[in-house]
Each structure stands twice: as structure tokens, then as C-alpha cells.
Amino acid sequence: MVDAVRHPRITLMTLTEISSCSGYAGNFRVTLEKKPRYVEDTCNACRDCIAVCPIKVPSEFNLGLAPRGAIYQPFSQAVPSTFLIDETACIHCYKCVDVCEKGAVNFSQKPEEIEVDVGAIVLATGFDNFDAEALTPYGYGRYGNVITSMDVERLLDPAGPSQGELVCPSDLSTPKRIAFIQCAGSRDLNHNEYCSGYCCMASLKTAIHMKDKYPDAEIAIFYMDIRTPSKGYEEFFRRAREAGVLFIQGKPSEVAPAASGDSLFVCSEDRSFGRPVQWNADLVVLAIGAVPSAGTEELSSRLVVGLDENGFFREHHPKLRPIDSPTDGVFFAGAACGPKDIPYSVAQGSAAAARASRVLMNDRLVIEPIVAQAEPTLCRNVTHKCGICAKRCPFGAIQVEPGQPARVIPAKCMGCGTCVAECPTGAITQAHFNDLQIYTQIRSYLSERPEDKILAFMCWWCSYPGADNAGVNHLHYAASSRGIRVMCAGRIKREFVYEAFRCGAGMVLVSGCHPQDCHYLTGQHWAERRMNSMPDRLERLGISRERFRVEWISAAEGRKYARVINEMDDTLKELGRVRIRQENEAVRPGLEKKLIRVPDIVCAPLGHAEAI
Amino acid sequence: MKALREFIKERNIRRRARACYQCGSCVGGCPVGRWREDFNPRRIVEMIVRDELEELVRSDIIWLCTACFTCLDRCPQKIEVTELITQLKNAAARIGNVPEGERKKARFIAEEGRSGKPVGKILKQRAALELPDLGQDTEMTELKELMNILYREKTLHQECSSSDEEEQVKD
Fold this sequence. Notes:
The complex is a heterodimer. By secondary structure, chain A is α/β, with parallel strands linked by helices. Chain A contains 17 helices and 27 strands. In chain A, a hairpin with a 6-residue loop joins strand 14 and strand 15. Chain B is mostly helical. Chain B contains 12 helices and no strands. The A-B interface holds A 137, 183, 187-190, 224, 249-254, 267-269, 271, 274-278 and B 21-30, 33-34, 37, 40, 42-43, 70, 73-74, 76-78.
């Protein structure tokens, strides 16, 4: 940390929060609010002020196990070493002002607003500890000798509140029997469903440390599973067993006080023997997991970065883009997007720095030329309250202000086309995937014998490679299919399906990624919502519902693609050319009526189709 | 058995029981398990998952459950252990696997409206508190009517009132 603060090209801004952020990768403008420290940088950390401060409040760093003053240094290695004043605790006696030789204490400091232009943003907001008081049966906060894994870290720290001596908080005696309760609040539907991952190793480490220091102490770890999947971790588990740590498999049901004294009973099952056990302990350590750090939600709304179901930041793709946020130029490091141990956090920090430098090192940002473009004259938002496009965009690439036409920020647009499909006035188009291009493809595929054809709309990432997979695996499927590739299923308009049937298509398939696999986060969801009502709509017009199908096909599912096409081909043959042609003839006026709203391009005369 | 299977299917019980990761927090908190090691709710859930219902329904172990709901309260996977055991008890009652004590209790409720007869000290305490004499305060006709509405199916107190009926139930 000291290296970072001394680095000439690193500016460290503590007590500072992001209040807003605009712009895009390479060109962010971030507004920061710097909170007053009330101590100038001239402070030399001589501690004279601490001696005179009459206030004593629980120290956050020591988790309330030690006090601090209203003027304080969070911990001795804190960076910068400049002290600060806790405004909520201070009684303004000004004793610190009198005693400071440097005259560094300055109560006239006000919150400052700072604007910075940056190219990339790395979110390393860390995690908070799970609140163990929520675990009522374990009695944290009720029984003095029930502590958390973080408390025990402070107690075992040589510079900590007990100078590294392990003590029972109730009477400061040395505990002889210590119980660890694993998964306290984790893997629990009542609290956090996820596994925090690091608690097993943390408890093993602490147990070995205790055994080294107090060889006579009896230590039991109550566990469901010990999870030690990383390099050298399993060996560490073995070391703990050999050191004489007792491992009892069973999740304790409760911690009960003894009839007299401060000792406790851990009530659990001992699964090795399939019987209940009441293990007498002087000290109980709850191995608590991680929860999203306070303010994560607020920050997510200011940066247009989504959260996952547990409240951590959501990465762009859990496997392929674990460092990137959906907003280009914003990256994650460490536990901001999920609990992580130290090696993994360090690796992710380095990766985030590398990803950020990729943005910074270039003079120009190269983007795919498939971005959405909004035509201001057609935008409905000018006269009405619309903004549908901005709501559909998962990347925050569209700005909509009341009375103003929607504006697409090209650098933020990933090119899924969901906004294009959802725009009620057709004001948005997608370059290289505009409506005219797609309608032209539809018409040319259906120019000859359309009733024998299956027209398949496919997304770029999953279902098209799925069809490709069927090909490279030499799987046989009906030759009647014709594929139209779009970037995302979210781009597929209902009108494309109508136009296909107007041109006389036999069958229409809409395909895309599986739910949650969408490369544009929400495109598949909107496509599904749009297409769900399609069979009913077509039936009302007079098209048999079996002539339209929606399937989610992944890139690996070549077999599924072949099966779907073959099934559709069977249906096509079953219905027969005559019936399909009759249906199509009957619905054409209805479809033309539906498509009349689309300006210019659609109701152009049918080329070869009419000749049939 | 059939009703039990239907119930299990209807309420998706086996699927929900499959979520059990056998942590044993139900055993650690069970007030019965502390005195009877052969009563192990975790094992009962696992037997449900592995479809060993027959064995459970024929055993007398399930009748040890006092339905205190501590297991549900402590279960990290929200599995309704007590509810499962209650349903097993219902199935056991249908095939006549009911301990004598439970029969007596059921009969007593049907006849007197309470599960036990207060004696000695309790009666004295009641007198000291000037509570009404027992036997007068329970309107049995109304209670019986209610029980008939609530338990149209064969229930414990009916089964126990005649042994012929029990035979029928077994069939």
C-alpha cells in the first residue's frame, strides 16, 4: 500500500466516493465526492492528539474489541498515515487543535467535488463480513464467548487488542477447548445460499496457529464438507489433522450455555457415529462468510453495472469474461463480484490491471461496426414519454431525456439489436443488420418454392454455431432449411416472422442462446417475451401454430439443431404443400395489413414468389 | 402407503428432500435424539430420498417425533422434516402401526377433548386458581361434530374404537 501511495503515477484518494459517472471506455468523466478528513496532510502521525482526545468509541478495524478516539488512525499501517476525525463521534472540544504542533487539525474542511477524466475504471470494492447476529441459535452477541472468525484474527494479531494472546472475551482467560463452526450463515437458504470458499482454509489456518501456540488446547472443527480445492490446500488440511485438530462432521444446531460459568455446549450431530453430541467449549468461533460490501448497490446504479442474485457485481460472462463488467471499460478485481480467497483476488487484480491497460494504451477504441443508430426525427420520445430502448439496453448505451430524441453512445453499444426490435417507431437501426437487409434476405430465400422451406432465424453466438456444429459433425438434417443470422435473438422482430409467412414460407424457426447464456445478457429474455405470444397471434391470423417454432440451441447442440429441423421438416411434409399454400394465400391480406406500419420497405411487390 | 406416495408426489416431497445435504443440524437440535440415539431425523430424510418408505412406515421410530419443529427451524435447506414425519405417521396409522400410548391418547381426545387426564397436583393448582371443574367445561358434542367434519378420512380415534375396523384398514 505504501508503494502505491509513493508511486508517481498513482493518485490515492481516500474518503472519496463516486457520485456520478458519464461517458464510455477511454472517455469516462467521473464526479467524486471527497469527504473532509479534518486533518491536513502535514500530520506526522505523532499520536499526541490521540492522547488528549476524550472520546472512546469501538474501533472498526478491531471489530469493537478495542476502543479508538474521535481523532484516530484506522490502523497503524493505514495509508495515508494522516489521521482523521470521526465527525459523528467528535464533541468539538478542540483539544487536538491545541496539542497539534504541526497545526494540522482543520475543522473548516468541507466536502469537495472533484471531476476526473479517466479511460478505465476498476471496481475493487471488496466484501463485508456476514452479520453473525442473524444466526440466533449460535448466540453471537448473546454469549460473550461466541466470536467470529474475524474476531479471532484480531485476537491472534500480535499488534491486536490482546497482543496476540487468545483470550475468552468474557473473562480474558485462555480457552482450553475451542470449537469452530463452519458454514455459519453460508450454504444456508435462510441466509446466504452460496459458499464463500475461503472459510475452510481460514479455519484450518487459525486452528494450526492455535495448536502451535497452545499445544494443550483441544480444538474441534464442526464441518459439513471441508473444501480445499486449490494448490497446496489439501496438504494443509492433512497438516491440521496431523496436528491433532478434531474434525466432527455435522452442522451444529445450536450453541447452549452451560448451567454455570461461561462455558458453552455446541449441540451437533457427530455423523461418524450417527449420534448427537454436546461438545463442551470455552470459546466458539463462527466461520462467517462474505456478503457484498455496503454501498455496492448504490455504486451499481451510478455506473450502470448490474448485480447478481446475491448482490455482488455481475460479470459480463461468468466463464469467458470474469473480469469485465457489461459496461466496456469497467473491470472488477477481487471480491467485488463474489467471495474470493487471496491468491484468486491477486490474480484477478493483475488481470483487471491488464484489461484496463488495453483500453489505455490505444489512441483509438476499435469497436465492431454493428452498433445501433437512432434517427432523431422518427423518435417517439420527442412527443411522448417512451424510452423503451434505454430500458431494453443492458449496457446503458442509450440515453433518453424527456422531450429529447434517444441517443446511442456507439462506444457502449455491443450490437445486440434488441432496442431495434423493440422500437415502436422504427427510429433505431442496426448497422449491417438493418431491417431492409434482413427483409431482403427473407425475400431472396423465399423467392422459389417458399412453402417447401424452413426459414430459421439464428443468433450469432449459440444457434448459428449450433447449426455449424451439426454440419462439421456430418449430421443429416433436412435440406429445406435456410438460416438468417442476426447478432442476438433479441434482434428478431415479430414483423420478420410475418414477412416470412407473407412471402409464403412453409415453416419459421426462431432460435437463440439458452436463457442465462445470452451473450448480451438480456437479449434472449426479450426475444422469448416477444415470441411467446407468436403462436397465438399466427393462429388468430389463420396460420397453423405448428408452423412456427421457438428453440434455444447452444453452440454445442448440433444434434439438437438437426433434430429440430428434421422434426419441422416432418411437420412440413405432414401439412402438405397444398394446405400451406392455401393458408398463406388466405392470410396474405391480413399480414399485409400488419406490415403496412413498417414504412417503405415491406409491401414491395413479391418478386418470384408471385410467379409460383 | 398409496396415500403417502400420492402426498409425496403432490407436494414434491422427494424432490425437496433431495436438497438435503445431510448436515445433521436436525439431529443436533432434536430433543428426542438426545435420549434415543436410534431416532435420527437426518437418516429418516435420507430413507425418504432413497425410497425406503415401507421400512419407515412399519417402524416404531417415527412415533418418537414430538413435532416440536426444531429441525425445520434449524434446517439450512428448509426441508420440512417434521411435516414429512407426520405424514409417515399418518401412513403408519392407516396400516395399524400405532403404539399403544398414541391409541390411548387419541381415544382420550375423542372422548374427553383432551390428551391426558389431570391428576393430583394439577387439580389442586386448578382449584387454587378457581378454575372450573374439569369435565364440565368441554362441550363434547360440538367437538365430536368438528372432528367428524375435519377428519372424514379414517382417523386414529375411530380406528382405535373397534378392533374390527382396524382389520379393515389393514386390508
